[in-house]
Amino acid sequence: MKKIVYLIVLVLLSGHFAMAQEEAPVEKKVDKPVRAPWESGTLVNHQTSITQYKNTLEMVISHRFGPVENGISDVFGIMAPGANIRIGFNYSILDNLSVGFGTNSQKKYQDFQAKYTPFQQTRENTIPVSLTLYGNAAIDGREDAAFGVDYAFSDRLSYFSEVIVGRKVNDWLSVQASANFTHYNSVDSLLDNDKIGLGFGGRIKFSPQSSLTLELGVPLKIESISQHTSFTNHPKPHFSIGYEVSTSTHAFQIFVTNGLGILAQELYMYNTNEFDSKSIRFGFNITRLWNF
How far apart are CA 111 and CA 113, in angstroms? Predict the structure, then answer.
């Protein structure tokens, strides 16, 4: 009889424990953002699809030398006149929002920018791509004489906006594509005030710190957005190929490109150089991060 009682108690207790286990809440696994799809917020000329963590200050120093066409006489453009330099600072207000300011030797541009990433690619592919919105406004700081007699302050202003979709394919390959819009308040009569473009970028990582970088920007010739029936000075695509080395707080990029401009709107509106032995030039970017 005692054995029967013990058996009944054992069955009841095991059933109770089984029900308790079934009713216990299941902890959901958080799908975190993918690790380091890009080493810097800037690829060559274009923005990448990442923003730095909250309370991070990012300094970016960019330099474009002269064209290599004169060969050794000016050390393949390194000693040539007409170089372009920009220094900029970006601060991340949130993990996915940053604002920044930069100053540029070309046309004495002073630029203000913002970058927002509403969606980040996740490690388990719950979100398969990153989506980033970027925009800037620049002021041409040259002397008044550069703008003619009927000049107004608004003639100095230009704008650039871009939607970037990026994906880290695997540990060694990241890619991105973008659609962008450029507007200058004042341009030459042979140019359109507005320009639509497409951008493409990639990073091939071949060691923990080193990568091959590629970038292409294509201004589209769309007559319908122009008030002119024809304009002859259509800008050329800009292409860059380079080498990047990075640490947790630094990134150094050296590359060959056919564009003198550093600001994206300058490249999409005014680049007239082909990617050939006469027009290509060396350049570099240095990025430094401080976390507060």
Answer: 7
Is the pLDDT at 128 greater than 70, yes or no?
A: yes
Instruction: In whole angstroms, give the CA distance from residue 128 to residue 124.
Output: 8
Distance CA 235, CA 220 (A): 9
pLDDT single digits (tens) 131-170 = 999 999 999 999 887 777 678 899 999 999 999 999 999 9
Task: Name which of 194, 133, 189, 104 is nearest 158 in CA terms.
Answer: 194
What are the domain boundaries of the chain?
41-291
CA-nearest of 78, 83, 80 to 104 is 83
| Fold category of 41-291 in CATH | Porin (2.40.160)
By mean pLDDT, which of 15-24, 169-178, 197-206 is the weakest? Answer: 15-24
* Amino acid in the structure at residue 77: G
Residues 179 and 47 sit within 8 Å (Cβ to Cβ): no
